[in-house]
Structure formats: C-alpha cells, structure tokens
Amino acid sequence: MRTWIKNTLIAALGASVALGGMAVASTVRDGCGWHGHGSMSEADMAKFRERIIDRASSELSLDATQRQHLVALADTLQAQRQSFMPAGSHPREQLQSLIAGERFDAARAQSLVSEKTEAVRNASPAVIAAAATFYDSLRPEQQQKVRDFMARGRHHGWRG
C-alpha cells in the first residue's frame, strides 16, 4: 500500500478513535450517556464538541486554516455518527428487541449489523478525506504531537 494512503487511513482512524473516545469518556464522566441518565442533548454535544476543538487548537497551536480543517473533520464525524445512529434510534431498544421473544432474532441482528456496516462504508470516504485534509495541513511538529497523543492512549490526554 502506498505510504500516503496508509498514513491517511491511519490519521483518519486515529482522529475517529480519538474524537469518539473523548466523546464516550465525556458522557461517562459527566454522568450521562451509557452509565447515566440518557444520551447527551444536542446543546451538550455542541458544547463538548467546541471544548474539544478549542483544546486541540490550543495544544497544537493551530492557525485559522488548520482550525477550519479540524472543524470540518468534526462536522464530518458528526454526520457519520448521525448516519450510524439516525434520530429516534435507540441502540438499547434495538438490542432488547433481539431477545424480546423466546428465540434470539438472528435475522434482525444480521440486518442491524448490515445497516450499521453500510452506514460506515458510505460515510468513510468523507471522513478519510476530512482527516487527511486536517492532518496534511499540520506542520511536522504538530503532526508529531498528534502521533505522540495517539501513542499515549486514551487515558493520558494531551499532556500525558
């Protein structure tokens, strides 16, 4: 595989994992989401998203263009998330429906997996392009900070 394609895929995956992991960690820490009283409201999600963008902008010393690329990446990831979890869709209810009867609904389970896989497949090119645009706009020292952040893992944050 060509080096630039490989790097683009790694950057896209890394950005997706980082932003997704931070979103999950925030929902758990703030007492909502999976372990609390329900999912984040749109206002909470927007506030969280802005906080993450501000933090990344600060840590990486992003210029205005780089910040715009980061915002575009966040927008693309949000669109992917919405296509993966359409409005009114509740994963817990979907999973509960699989065991509502006397037998596990394997056909519906496979259908759910297919739907989610297709949503990811359809949104992936846009996510990869946005991640590549953002990552490629970074200066070498900024790229190294991103690599260092990813190497530290999700529990150590920017300052690890």
From TrEMBL:
Which Pfam families would you find in this protein's record? Answer: LTXXQ (PF07813)
Question: In its keyword annotation, does this UniProt entry include Signal?
Answer: yes
The species is Ideonella lacteola
Question: What's in the keyword line of the UniProt record?
Answer: Signal
Q: Which residues form the signal peptide?
A: 1-25
Q: What is this protein called?
A: Spy/CpxP family protein refolding chaperone
Report the superkingdom from the record.
Bacteria
Q: Which InterPro entries match?
A: LTXXQ (IPR012899)
